[in-house]
Design brief:
alpha/beta, about 160 residues, about 30% helix, five-stranded mixed barrel, Rossmann fold
Amino acid sequence: MSGACRSGAKEIITGGSCGALSDFPENTFLIPYKALRDEGASYHYVKPSRFIDINSAALKAIEKTIVEYGMKYQEVVTWTTDGFYRETREKVAYRKQEGCETVEMECAALAACASLRHAIWGCILFTADTLADPEKYDERNWGKDSFEIALKLCLDAVINI
């Protein structure tokens, strides 16, 4: 089906937790505007590049929604990797030098798939665990207090596209 995902969805906003690479408190909402591609899936959908940009229409809808909720947000570069075992001290330090402030497992792949299918896709992240301190990994409470509001934000943001 040209112009849409095979399921017919044309506007998609996802939400999920991420690891903090910078000093963000748990349950901080963040909007990735580009993702570092360090996973394998995204390379099956769009040509290789170091980063993939997030759709600007999705970003505007997400920002509008978060402001409507009276919340603050920050745009970030995220590091997408499909293996948490790759999150070594050395690699975390390197990714931070490249400007990444979060780490997660889906953003780059979903952006690439949406691009191939000509769908508008964006993502709302919230911080769960943290790798900001290179000497101490902290799982915190896995962002459990953010799941419900994240779902509401995603549903309202897709309406704002």
